[in-house]
């Protein structure tokens, strides 16, 4: 549960094998503290414009099915 106010939520993804579509290590952090981590066995690489990456959450988010 997050307290009211502004928080920094980050998702860090890194390939665990040096190949496109390979497994990813994913780390979810809130205010710099890791709150969840795991491995995605197959990734779907996407091509996007440089600098167009990320989201802004401007409302309450509920934890679903965790």
TrEMBL record:
This is Uncharacterized protein. The lineage of its organism: Bacteria, Bacillati, Actinomycetota, Actinomycetes, Mycobacteriales.
